[in-house]
Design goal:
This protein is mostly beta strands. The chain contains 1 helix and 5 strands. The longest helix has 10 residues.
């Protein structure tokens, strides 16, 4: 789903980044990710994140998730960002007890 807004044009429909302790091949989410705003945190007390985010420019919704594997010599961290369809964002807003933002 292409988007012409300045923020969303820097994000693919699905993004993945991974950081591994001691690795020189770590990847990170695009800089545009930092411009998204948090709408609802579904796991506020968890170290594994699941956050509904929104583009402040065009209103598109994204789901941000993290996962990790803890190892004795460090951790392996994964970040996922997925652009949501209207139906997916509506479902997540209802899950959060919200009708619209």
């Amino acid at each position: 789903m292409a988007n012409s807004c300045e923020t969303c044009s820097g994000l693919s429909d699905r993004e993945h980044a991974e950081q591994k302790f001691g690795s020189d091949n770590n990847t990170y989410l695009p800089a545009a990710f930092s411009r998204l705003t948090d709408v609802f945190d579904y796991e506020p007390c968890s170290s594994r994140k699941r956050i509904l985010k929104q583009c402040p420019e065009c209103g598109a919704f994204f789901l941000y998730r993290t996962d990790y594997v803890f190892l004795v010599n460090g951790s392996e961290d994964d970040e996922y960002l997925m652009r949501l369809s209207k139906q997916e964002s509506d479902d997540l807003l209802r899950e959060a007890g919200m009708e619209s933002v």
